[in-house]
Amino acid sequence: MARFRVLLLSLSLLFVIQSVLSISFYLPVRSRKCLREEIHKDVLVTGEYEISEQPNTKTNLKITDSSGHILYVKEDATKGKFAFTTEDYDMFEVCFESKSPMGRVPDQQINLDMKHGVEAKNYEEIAKVEKLKPLEVELRRLEDLSESIVNDFAYMKKREEEMRDTNESTNTRVLYFSIFSMCCLIGLATWQVFYLRRFFKAKKLIE
Fold first, then answer.
1. Which residue range or ranges hold the GOLD domain (predicted)?
2. Where are the domains of the chain?
């Protein structure tokens, strides 16, 4: 029982740490800044952004994957939310681009809060729909979090196996190349010995 409580406390602490993923930065006028993040397959991603307004300045927001597919786009963005579900493990890019015809404009402050996986789920809505008690909601949250952790470990194990297979394949190829190189060197050395022997015999330096 004590171990179970420790596990619940650890998972709760991990959940709290993962939930605080807020980024704030300044975007100079007529510039572009992008944020990249790797996300697993079939993961819900939600985000909320707020951009400080400046006169005669427009800021566009675009979210794309590594293939260039647009997942979310907003022109003249000031404040809003977005959500999408990943179709495959990929690198996603969130780009803010500032445009202004004026020369000198103060930098815009951008606040971005992105969540994915367990963090992005609205457990209050789930509790209302399924009529769950607060303790049941917390247990559901911990169950989803533990499942997410297990999936992450499974993915890491899969990547480790792929890297090990690649390493073994590379070592095998290097071994074969080394053997081929040694055979070539031995063959060249043997040819040089016979060539020099015939040469010296032709010059009557040896019998």
1. 32-181
2. 21-119
Cα–Cα distance between 64 and 94 in angstroms, integer? 7
Q: Could you identify the residue written with the tokens 């060539």? A: 195
Q: What is the spatial distance between Cα 182 and Cα 169, in angstroms, rounded to a whole number?
A: 20
**Distance, CA of 28 to CA of 46 (rounded, Å):** 25
CA distance 152 to 154: 5
> Residue 89 gets which letter from DSSP?
S
What confidence tens digit (pLDDT) does each residue in 84-138 have? 888 888 889 999 999 888 767 788 999 999 888 777 777 777 778 788 888 887 8
d(CA 167, CA 50): 46
Alpha carbon distance 11, 146 (integer Å)? 7
Instruction: Let me know the angle formed at the C-alpha of 64 by 36 and 74, rounded to the nearest 5 degrees.
Output: 110
**Structure pTM?**
0.63
Which CATH fold would you assign to the domain 21-119?
Answer: Jelly Rolls (2.60.120)
Other C-beta atoms lying within 10 Å of the C-beta of residue 70: 9
Phi-psi group of 96: left, alpha or beta (phi > 0 → left; psi -120 to 50 → alpha; rest → beta) = beta
Tens of pLDDT along 59-80?
999 999 888 889 999 999 999 9
Amino acid at 126: I
Of 88, 96, 94, nearest in space to 39 by CA: 88
Q: How far apart are CA 148 and CA 43, in angstroms?
A: 10
Distance of CA 81 to the CA centre of its chain: 22
CB 10 within 8 A of CB 53: no
